Amino acid sequence: MYRARAIVNSLTGVQGHFAGWLLVKNTAPGASCAAVRSYNVPAASEPFLNGSSSQYVEDMYNAWLADPSSVHASWDSFFRNSASGGAGYQSPPSLAPLGRNEVPATSFLPALAGVGGTGAVSEKVIDDHLAVQAIIRSYQIRGHHIAKLDPLGINSADLDDRTPQELLYSHYSFEDDDMDRVFKLPSTTFIGGKEKQLPLREILRRLELTYCRHIGVEFMFINSLEQCNWIRQRLETPGAMEISADEKRLILARLTRATGFESFLARKWSSEKRFGLEGCEILIPAMKQVIDKSTEFGVESIVMGMPHRGRLNVLANVCRKPLHQLFTQFAGLEAADDGSGDVKYHLGTYIERLNRVTNKNIRLAVVANPSHLEAVDPVVQGKTRAEQFYRGDGEGKKVMSILLHGDAAFCGQGIVFETMHLSDLPDYTTHGTVHIVVNNQIGFTTDPRHSRSSAYCTDVARVVNAPIFHVNSDDPESVMHVCNMAAEWRATFHKDVVIDIVCYRRNGHNEIDEPMFTQPLMYRKIKNTKSVLEKYSEQLVKENVVTTEEVKDVKAKYEKICEDALESARKETHIKYKDWLDSPWSGFFEGKDPLKASPTGVKEDTLVHIGKRFSSPPPNAAEFVIHKGIERILKARMEMVEARTIDWALGEAMAFGSLLKEGIHVRLSGQDVERGTFSHRHHVLHHQTVDKATYRPLCNLYPDQAPYTVCNSSLSEFGVLGFELGYSMTNPNALVIWEAQFGDFNNTAQCIIDQFISSGQAKWVRQSGLVMLLPHGLEGMGPEHSSARLERFLQMSSDDPDYFPPESDEFAVRQLHDINWIVANCTTPANLFHILRRQIALPFRKPLILMTPKSLLRHPEARSSFDEMLENTEFMRIIPDKGAASQNPQNVKKVLFCSGKVYYDLRKAREERKLDNDIVITRVEQISPFPYDLIKNECAKYPNAQLCWAQEEHKNQGSWSYVQPRFETALTGSRDVIYVGRPTAASPATGSKAQHLKELANLLDDAMAL
C-alpha cells in the first residue's frame, strides 16, 4: 500500500505530465465518460472525473500487482517504470495556451504502449511521439505564418519573413533517418483520414499541404474544442478540397464575368473613376459561393455592406442588377428624383431573384455607403437584425449579413471593433456575419508595415473568437473551399467568420492614379503578372476540364451582354435613384396624401390604462421584490395618473404605450436606457434577491400589443447609432430610438450623423424615422455634460434661411416633407408625447433630433395635463405665453423667444422681479424647420415690444446663428431681434459651479432688463 501511495504522489506531482491526470485537470466538471474515452484514456479512468483519483490509482496499482494484463498497456508501462525507479514522463514545452476545452498535448500517451509492443515504452519513444504531437499542434497554430498567400510572391501576409522554429522538424531532434518511422496520430488531427498512424515524412507532407500552401488559417485561439475540431476536420481530412469538373467550370464562368465587366468599363470609360476590382476578381465567385452555400442552409435574405472598391462589379455580377442601370451612371445624366444623388460607387440596391445554382429565391441588399469605408458596418448589422426580428428569425437561419472590407480599413477603423463587439450581445447579435477582406496589401499609398502594428489586418476578429481564413486570391479552388467552410461555420455556430483574400490592386487607388510613385517594385511585378482568369483558364485547359474554344466562347457571350446593355442605357434620359434603394418600403407610400398627417392625440381611457400599468408593481408583487426607491417612484406616478398629470417619464411611456397599442413596434436603445441615465425611466424592474429576474411594464400593457424592445447597449456611440439607423431603415412602421448617455457624446458618432442621417435621403433617396434623444442643458456639470451641440444639427438643416414658404393649411407638414430632418427642444411632457407619436403619424419618415432635459425630468413645473394629449390636440411648434402680459399685448415691453430648459429659469426670474405684465416668454419647441408662420404672428401680436432671442448656450453655439436670419425673413427686416445669453466661447460650458451660476445670473439680468 505504501508503494501504491508513492506512485499516486508521483502521478499527481508531475503537474499534469501524465495524460489521464491532465485530462482531469482540463475537462469541465460533469464531462461525459465518452469524452474521456475519445482521448484514448482507458475507460476505467472515469473515477478521475469524480475526484477520487488517489483511491483509483491505488486500485489500479493493486490490480496490476495481481495481474499486469488486467490493466491497460499504458498503465502497465507506467507501473513497470515507476516500480523500477525509472524517470516519469516528460512533455515538451507548451506551444500555446490551451483553450478552455482543449485537450493537452500528452492526451494520447496512455495508449502508446500499444505502438510497437505491449511491454514498457522507452523514454525515447515517448519523447518522439510527444514531439510529433507538438509538430502537429505547431502547424495548426503557426502554419499560416509560412503559407504562400501573396499571389505576387513578394510579401509575407503577416509582415514577417521568418519561419517559426516550431515548424522545423529538426527543432525536435529528428533526423533524416526518422522520416520513415511510423507514429501514432493523436485524436486532435484528421490528416490520417481513416489511418491511425503515418510515417513522419507523410505527416509533414500532409501538414504542409493543409496549413502552408495557399490557405493559412488562424483558429487555435478559439476556446472550444468542438469548434477547433470542426475546422481541423474540414481542413485536414484527405481529399477535403477536391471539387468536380462542373464546379470548376462554374468558377471559370464567374471569373470570366467578373473580369469581363471590369475590362468593358475600362474600354468604354477609360478616364472615369470606378474603383474596379482588377487584382481581386475572385471576390465575385467567392461572394456567390458564400451566398449559394448559405442558401442551401436555408438563408433567404442577405444584407451586404462594402466599400467602393468592386461595388459596381458586385452589383452587376453578385446581385445581378440590370447592367443598363449601371451603365446609365456613366452617362452624366441629371437625376429624375429629388435629392443631390451620389457617385455611382457609393450607391446601394435591393434585388429579389432566383438563385440558379440552388433553385431557391434569394433577396440581396447592398447598403449605400459613403467614402467613410467601414461606416456602413453597423448599419448593415442593424438592418439585418431588424429583418430577423420582423420575420421571427430568432436564430438567424433566414437572414444573414455579409460585410466586405479593405485591409487597411479593417485594421485601422475603430468602427470595425465597435461593430464586432455587438456580435454576441442579446439585443444586437445577427447570429454570425461573414466578413470578406479584399486584402490589396496596401492602403491608398501606405505600405502595410506603416498601417498596422499587428501581424495581420484581420487580428481584430480574434477578439470575438472568429476563425480567420487567409487565402491566396490566385488559387480559386482554395478560395471556394474557404468560402464553403465560412458559410457552413456561420450556419452551424452562428458566429462571425473572416475570409482574408490576399490579392493585389492592379491599378492605383483609382483608375487615374499613378501607383508607381509610391510602390514601384510592387507595380513592376503586377505589370508582369497574369490575371487570375488567365491562370485558371490555362490550368483547366491542361486538366482537360475545358477547351480553349470554350474559354473564348464564355468571354464573347458576356461581352455581347454588356454591349446590349449599353445600347439600352443610351436610351435613358435621367438617372432614377429609386432604382438604387437598398430599403424599399413596399406599399408604405401608396394611397397616402403626402401632406396629411394622422392625429396624435388619444383617448383618455388609453392614457389612464397605460399610466396605471406603468405605475404598478409586477403582478406577482408578493414574490417579486422591487427596490424601495422604485416603490416610491411607482407610487408617485400613480398619484400623477389619478391627478390627470404627467411628468417627462410618464409622457414618454404614454407615447410608447399608445403606439404599442396601435401595433407599432418601439425599440429604445442606448448605453443606460433601461433605467435611464438620470434614473427617471425604469422600464426594466429588477428583482432584488433573484439575479436576472426582471419585469418590463410596457411589455405587459395589452395582450395583443406590438413588441417593445428596450436594451442597454455597449459603450459605443458610432457603432450603436449606426446599428439603430440600419434598424430604422427596415420597417417604416416602427419607432426606433437611440438615446445618448449625455448628448455631448453624440460627436463620437458624428460620421453616422453627417453621412447617413443628415444626408441619407438626399444622396440615396433613403428615408428614416430614427429618433435621437440627446440630454442637453447647462447645469454646471462641466464641458462634457452640458451640450449636445445643438448648433451642429441646425447648421446641417437644409431649409433656406431666406425663404418664407407660402402659408397654407399644410404649411407645417410641407415644411417637414421638404427638410432633411427635424430638430426640437421641448419643454413639456405633452409636447414630447406628441412629437414622438408624430414620427409615426407622418405620411413619410424624417429623422428627429430631440434635445432632452436633465433637471426638467423632475422639475415640479415641467408637468402636463391629460387635456393636452387627448383627441384633437397636437404637437405645438411654439408655445405662446398665456400669462398676464399676453392679455395686454400693446403694453408688453419685451418678448423673449427661447427653447428648452432656459424657459423655466427665465420664468422664475420674471416672477421674482414682478415683470409678468411687461415681459412675454414664448417657447420655440420645433426649431427646425423654422416655424415662420407662427413666429410672424407672435411678433405681430406685440407691436411695441423689443424682440429678443434668449439661450443658455454661448453665442457661437446653440440656436442663435440658425434663428437670427430666419427671424429677419419672417419679419421681412421690419424689426430687429436682440441676442441675450452667454458670450462666445471655445468650450461648451465652464467646469466651475461658481462661474456657471455667475454666467446664469448675468444671462437673467440681461433678459429681464427693460
From TrEMBL:
Domain Transketolase-like pyrimidine-binding: 646-859
E.C. number(s) listed in UniProt: 1.2.4.2
Record has Metal-binding as a keyword: yes
Subcellular location(s) of the protein: Mitochondrion
Enzyme class label: oxidoreductase
Protein keywords: Glycolysis, Magnesium, Metal-binding, Mitochondrion, Oxidoreductase, Thiamine pyrophosphate, Transit peptide
Known cofactor(s): thiamine diphosphate; Mg(2+)
Signal peptide range in chain numbering: none
GO process annotations (BP): glycolytic process
Transit peptide found in the keyword field: yes
One Pfam family it belongs to: OxoGdeHyase_C
Bilayer-crossing regions: none
Chief location: mitochondrion
GO cellular component: mitochondrion
Molecular function per GO: metal ion binding; oxoglutarate dehydrogenase (succinyl-transferring) activity; thiamine pyrophosphate binding
NCBIfam families linked to this entry: 2oxo_dh_E1, PRK09404.1, PRK12270.1
Biological role stated in the UniProt entry: The 2-oxoglutarate dehydrogenase complex catalyzes the overall conversion of 2-oxoglutarate to succinyl-CoA and CO(2). It contains multiple copies of three enzymatic components: 2-oxoglutarate dehydrogenase (E1), dihydrolipoamide succinyltransferase (E2) and lipoamide dehydrogenase (E3).
Family of the protein in this entry: Belongs to the alpha-ketoglutarate dehydrogenase family.
Classification via PANTHER family: 2-OXOADIPATE DEHYDROGENASE COMPLEX COMPONENT E1, 2-OXOGLUTARATE DEHYDROGENASE
Protein name: 2-oxoglutarate dehydrogenase, mitochondrial
Organism from which the protein derives: Tribolium castaneum
Higher taxonomy: Eukaryota, Metazoa, Ecdysozoa, Arthropoda, Hexapoda
